[in-house]
Amino acid sequence: MSEHPLRLGTRRSKLAMAQSGQVADAVSQVTGRPVELVEITTYGDTSREHLAQIGGTGVFVTALRDALLRGEVDFAVHSLKDLPTGQPDDLVLAAVPVREDPRDVLVARDGLAFAELPNGARIGTGSPRRMAQLNAYARNHGMTIETVAIRGNVDTRIGYVRNGELDAVVLAAAGLNRIGRIDEVTDFLSVDTVLPAPGQGALAIECAADNADLIAALGELDDPFTRAAVTAERSLLAALEAGCSAPVGALADLLADGQIVKEMRLRGVVGTTDGSTLVQLSTTGPVPETHDQAMALGRELAAEMLAKGAAGLMGERAL
């Protein structure tokens, strides 16, 4: 008998459809079943407000999770950096596939790199994290830039450069890779200049916690190193009590000696959006072998950052 197709819940944006399509193909291969995309509109897609104003964290995720819980879709694909750090009990992250390039990139007029931008250059981004680090870099290198808050899809953002409104925009390399537009990048920003968002470049495949067969099948797409890295990054974010609209950057990467992976390094940054103050620290330890070890790595670095004054840079927390 032919089994009915698995239903994959996805946002409607071009990027979401592209990455969900790639996951659908992979799931179809491991399960032998067809996968159909179910398009779901989220509040973050319809609202024109800036993410920080509409709560930032979860605005792209809630509608997908509701569809999962109602049984309208079998599993959902999220950009991992959009996921709130708290995981609902009735849903499970069944797979975190191999991560794409986590870096941020610049798309600038006239093919310019970041260091070549003229004084007073207007750079568009919707991210306080990017603003904080770009402004700090400019301040430390004698550059004058103006960061401009923007929203919209990739076409809209790159359009601001093409029509001359902005000198450059900052986007995620992974997104441009997935929609086949990486050739429009004029500069790849080193993670030493701009640390990416926690989980940037990674996808999360989520399904109901009681669907053991599907969890097992989706688990074949899981990459243990990517999962350990993003778990540490998100643990740092959670311990700083910051949502995805807070100016927090984090990246965990593997340090290898030849072919042997020896350690994991976790770097974190938080700063004021004008770049006047940054707290940037890193820690290195054994590669986490369990979820709890990865969580501990993030919490330890967060504690050091809070001791160095990170809390005051994200707006005062209720103590």
Mean pLDDT: 88
Please trace the helix and strand order, writing H or E for each element. EHEHHEEEEHEHEHEEHHEEEH
Taken as a percent bin, the fraction of beta residues is 15-25%
**Regions with little confidence, pLDDT below 50 for 5+ residues:** 50-56
Radius of gyration: 20 Å
Give a count of the beta strands, DSSP E runs of length 2 or more: 13
Tell me the major beta sheet. 5 strands, mixed
Spatial ordering of strands, largest sheet: 2-1-3-10-4
Helix content: 25-40%
3D shape: globular
Distance between the termini: 59 Å
**Tally of alpha and pi helices:** 9
What structural class do helix, strand and pairing data support?
Answer: alpha/beta
Description:
- 31% of the residues lie in helices and 25% in strands.
- The chain has 319 residues and is α/β, with parallel strands linked by helices.
- The strands form three sheets. The protein has a five-stranded mixed sheet with strand order 2-1-3-10-4, with helices on both faces. The protein has a five-stranded mixed sheet with strand order 7-6-8-5-9, with helices on both faces.
- Helix 8 (224-239) runs parallel beside helix 9.
- The termini are far apart.
